[in-house]
Amino acid sequence: MNNPTQCDEAGVFLLATFLQGKLFRFKVGAFDEVDSIGEDEHLRAVINTELLLAGAARHKA
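-> structure tokens emitted (61 positions)
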């Protein structure tokens, strides 16, 4: 059985590490009062929904 310990303080961080055109890369992590809980990278792209759907419609036809 999992017996979690009490955590009085916890937090997260987000650091933008890369930007090129529409691509954004972030380093994210979580920590408690003792140590790091975990961290990873997240990649996100900004898109124009109207252009994306118009292109999909052209390819479908």
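The radius of gyration is 19 Å.
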